[in-house]
Write a structure and sequence with these properties.
- The protein has no helices and 21 strands.
- The chain is globular and about 45 Å long.
- The strands form five sheets. The chain has a five-stranded antiparallel sheet, with no helix packed on it. A four-stranded antiparallel sheet has the order 3-4-5-6, with no helix packed on it.
- The chain has a single domain (16-267), classed as Glycosyl hydrolase domain, family 43 (Tachylectin-2, Chain A, 5 Propeller), CATH 2.115.10.
- It has 270 residues and is mainly beta.
Amino acid sequence: MKKVFIFMFVITSLFSFSNSTSSNDLKAKSIQMNKFFRAWQGVGADKKYIYVTSDRDTKFSLSNTISVYDVSGKYVVEKQSAYTGKDKQGRFMSFGDCFVSNSFLYATVYNFNSAPPINKRISRVVKYSLPDLKLIEEYDIGQGTAESLATYKGSFWVVYHDRNEVKRFDSKFRYQATYPLSAKFGGEGGYQGIFFKDNELYGNLHGSNQNGKEYAQGLDHYKFNGNTFEFIERIKVPTYGAGQGVEKVENKVYWVDRPANKIIITNEFL
């Protein structure tokens, strides 16, 4: 996410699929995006496809795109202007992370990048049918900059860039509860991606927008006892820039590496 300045990645714009070794000895593969700024926000996946959300076009202007790759790393299609909704004051609503559930793609959207007053920051969840990427539902979920969502115990759970908490919603995104998260995060901001494994929550913190500044903050691990989330540890992420959306599908973990404009894929290490 989210600091609005323009820089060019030192990458080729051609597609590639490569093996690499991460800094914490995870065996990783990477999918190079075929255009600039495509791996900018989120990633979701199912058994066949990987879905990547960005709120920037190739000139770094605000524009929401969903890119689709197959699980071997081959580019399939993209949907530009995938969401064009605005808030009540006409402010652009940007994609955050995305998530696949029951053959639908869900993504968060928010007006943060349009610089509203703090008390006017709002978010929605948008729902797309698959595989046609048709927008079928929009849900207003209130204040805050909602970055990512996951399902657990029949509910949707949402984390925020600007709030150290996770909120619980029902299947129609009606509010149920708020749970504080105790880990501290730095100036880059809060959680950009989450997933659950059993009764454990994993939240990926915002990383730098470019290489050479600071290694991504890490993946925070919490244990949920039914009432509170207990912080367990902060896990080093597999690459320098893997500080955006994250998703776990079966034994694979998918990470958005913004500076490299790649999706990183690791075997489950949790």
